[in-house]
Structure prediction request, 533 residues.
Amino acid sequence: MIVFENVSMNYRRSVSPALDDVSFEIRDGEFVFLVGQSGAGKSSILRLLMREVTPKEGTVIVDEINVGRLRKRKIPNLRRKFGMVFQDFRLLPEKSVAENVAFAMQILGKTRKEIKQTVPQVLDLVGLLDKSNRRPNQLSGGEQQRVAIARALINRPSILLADEPTGNLDPDTTIDIMRLLDQINRAGTTVLMATHDASIVDQMRKRVIQVENGKIARDQSQGNYGY
Amino acid sequence: MSRFFARIRFVLSEMWQGISRSFTLTIALIATFAISLSLMGVSLLVGAQVNEMKDYWFDRVEVSIFLCTAGSDSANCQSAATDEQKVEFEADLEELRPLVSEVFFESNQDAYQRFIERFSDSPIAANVVPEQLPESYRVKLSDPEQFLVIVEKFSNRPGIEAVRDQRATLNSLFAVLNGLQVLALGFAVSMLAVTMLLISNTIRVTAYARRRELAIMRLVGASKLSIRLPFILETAFSAVIGAALSAGVLAAVKGYLVDEVIATRFLFTSFFGWDAVQEAILISSAAGIALALFASWLGISRHLRA
Prediction:
């Protein structure tokens, strides 16, 4: 459950607010597109959720945690609720596919046994089990994004945040990735995806929250991109 | 429990990655730790030597009261000291017990023997007769610092040519040793300052080389400690190796330089023992490791704001 309640925030050295009185609610298990032009405030919403920034006014709540008021040493606990996927994949080039995914488990102190069990399951889910030992530079863009998704899912987060995950991919690959995200969502994970790819939003017919100049311009279930 | 070991294994493997990614800097860091901790240890050893010599010499040094000889040209000397005067001096010295712990009268015959022994190679010895050398009281004090009491009591008295404290000579030697100690400590402190700068730089380079891993660690929700620990351990690792090398240097200073080279040439004094070496190693190693922990915590906090 994600709640934004009258949230405003500024970046330093910026006159106009990045977000201005934003309110919305996302229930567990929803699939939500966050659309809007570059600089409209999509990334700010994601960064607020991860507590990379704090709101100037209003409250951000994730699973009953008041994110803005969270004590610093509790931030890691908040971040473990999320899996995060980026436009540029952010894989470690010198590690294999399996090692990249395992790294996220090692960070949280999971045992070798747990890692050995879980990594193949998740790689199978994203369809890359046969490429476990490849390096990222031996994979296509779509495959690299699948590895990144596998890494985001490996610690079983309740919410998947995706920031322009298809921004670097061709249309066919984009459709594959969207199918995968939809499949993950159907398995129970909340998905919040920031994008400005109109065609996917139109095809998927999911809830759309549109941000413009830091304000919510539209919040529509089963929306299209730009009406 | 196995989770705990998994964490330790992860932190150690991250530490090892950090060391191998900035290998040359790690070598430089180990070298500066070794040099600065050696200098610090040497400074402590010089200090131990000064104390050792003070103990050794202050037990042996005496205040000498030289009596007039026939040839003295001091204003207090009309003639050689008379027997009545000597009785008076001895009574006065007895009165000063317990400050005066021992009194030894050196006759001019005794003084002559010592003189002949010391200058046996020199032609002067042949020209000296016992009467030219002053008789003296050699006075040992229970508290050598109280030497002025003797000076006040005995100088400027008829029959006494001079009162001399042998410590005055030793003190100039100690001043030289103290200067050396301060110098070594000064070098050690400036090397430790260089070490701190190097720690900060090494962390910067390692953090940059590992920026992708660090970004993912933060994203996945690694705790602050597990992000920082590899960097701190990496610096502590360099400090421990550097401290081990400096321990070797200090052991060599004692085992070879002091025991084999210096002690065989300077027989007149004693030298610091292995307990002083042990103490110097402990203190400098502890200082080095404490500095490593402090500087790396500071450095990593500056480079990795969560």
About this structure: Chain A touches chain B at residues 50, 72-73, 75-80, 84, 90, 92, 103-104, 106-113, 151, 155 (CB under 8 Å). Helices of chain A lie at 42-49, 75-79, 97-107, 112-125, 141-153, 171-186, 198-204. Residues 5 and 155 of chain A are 28 Å apart (CA to CA).
